Amino acid sequence: MGKVYHLDLEKKDIQGAELVLMPGDPGRSPLLARAIADAYGSKSDTIASKREFTTCLTEVMGKKVLVTSTGIGGPSTSIAVDELAQLGVKTFIRVGTTGAIQDNILDGDCVITTAAVRLDGASTHYAPLEYPAVASFSVVSALVEGAKKSGVKFHLGITASSDTFYPGEERTDAFMEYKLRRFRGATEEWRALNVLNYEMEAATLLTMTSAFGSRGGCVTGVVNRGSTGRITAETLNAGQASAIKLAVAAIPFLVQD
Questions:
Q1: Per CATH, which fold does 11-255 belong to?
Q2: How far, in Å, CA of 169 to CA of 229, rounded?
Q3: pLDDT given at position 257
């Protein structure tokens, strides 16, 4: 096969990498890849950048590791996961940011997702809604070990993945004050059902990886209180740094499986 269309990559470019870490922001790809390279004495190179997809290549314990950004939301995430799977990638880890909805979860903490509420649409193009969006047990275990190794405070549980940042997360700072009836009280309901946080990509990634027979996981750093809290530079830096630190520490537990 030649190059996949959106990522602008072909098999020879990824040099046999089977693990990819997937931030949302293209600007985080080189940041995360450099953090990996610095931690494990390797180097990082940007090998492709097209649209919202920036891919870097690095190495840990003799194994090539990719970092590919997904952009925001399920549709672009589905493209990245699908095309990387076509190239031979087997393990997909979202590394991003999130808004917490439980009071005991603080800015700068991390959420390791065990499963996701499918409030997206893209995942339904790969499996019906009855099909669960579940993280791979081995990936969750590796992320937990990474959290312990790095000393990052983490919370383990269910994430709500919304297609929209404003109405789907019942945010109070949206332009349109009116909320559709199906979103009114949604946060209170998810909180009562012990959902930990809101974000926008996990449901798509976890549904796809389960359906593909590959491995999927998600770790996100808390940058605000979901629905109400505004994201500041301080909280963004804290959440982003925690997620990167945890993910970097988890890689040896992922590549040695």
A1: Rossmann fold (3.40.50)
A2: 11
A3: 63
